[in-house]
Amino acid sequence: MAGVSNGADEADDTGVTDEVDEIAGDGEAGVAVDRVGKTYEGDGTPVRALDDVSFAVEEGEFVCLVGPSGCGKTTLFRVIAGLTDATDGQVLLGGTPVIGPTTDMGVVFQEYHLFPWLTVAENVGFGLERSDRTDAERERRVDEMLELVGLSEFRDSYPKSLSGGMKQRVAIARALAVDPELLLMDEPFGAVDAQTREMLQRELLDVWQSTGKTVLFVTHDVAEAVTLADRIVVMAAEPGRVAEVVDVDVDRPRERGDPAFGEHVARVRELIGARP
Ligand code: ADP
Ligand code: MG
Q: Reduced to 3 DSSP states, what percent helix, strand and coil does the chain have, rounded to the nearest 5?
């Protein structure tokens, strides 16, 4: 990872937009999405999945990305994670262009992507295998992460014996184990029941507050975004683009019954054209 000053210079060299530069250019863990476009060239007509998408996430900030199905959320997630190339523009992490997957980002997918043949502790420690840590240090880190997500007593269990919510806690612990600058999540709670989902949301906020990580969280669930985010990047479809960025000025912990909560949900729904 480049240093702070180097990162800021690079941001200038690469011609990042002033707005994006101002907010993320100097932040070691800030993310800048700078005029990103993505066209899928299929057999038939090319699909413009993303068009001129720019926004920034400040270091330590919790930003949600919401929008209707097909508006390019997963495409953008994959571009930011370095899993696919943008057709236009670039993504900067701490001022440095993202050119491929990096341990500076902890990534959590909707499907748990756990290794079924490894125990919970082995799954969490997977990304640490290639680090310089000694066995004892790795062990300690895994224990810390399991403690953080409340799964210490399941360290020797296998994924198949866990509920969906527990599997996603393991995935979060694994993503955080390498101490990434950014936690990047794509609909991570999409596969669990409503009650578990609300519990995982509360837990994620606790983890965010205790670790101070920068979080970018993709969801199509507007209430989830209003529960979690400092700011919400609202996307529109065809082509996938940013409709508006909404500040969520509601104190935490947030209650769904609070009028301010309802107003934000209504505002975001209106922007994405969904019925309230
Ligand atoms: P979202 O996650 O918001 O539902 P996606 O990023 O998955 O949206 O998809 C955005 C658009 O790009 C959709 O029209 C989708 O059909 C198209 N798309 C996604 N992945 C591919 C791909 N690998 N090849 C061609 N088109 C794709
Ligand atoms: Mg998606």
A: 40, 20, 40
Stated pTM of the model: 0.89
Q: What is the pLDDT of residues 67-113, one digit of tens each?
A: 999 999 999 999 999 999 999 999 999 999 999 999 999 999 988 78
Q: What's the CATH number for 4-104+181-272?
A: 3.40.50.300
**What is the side-by-side strand order in the sheet with 88-93?**
47-57, 31-40, 88-93, 96-97
CA of residue 51 to ligand 2 center, whole Å = 16
Other beta carbons within 10 angstroms of residue 101's beta carbon come to 11
The closest residue, in CA terms, to atom 15 on ligand 1 is 70
Helix (H), strand (E) at residue 166: helix 164-177
Residue with the two structure tokens 């507050």? 209
Ligand nearest to the CA of 109: 2
Closest-CA residue to 30 (of 61, 64, 55, 59): 59
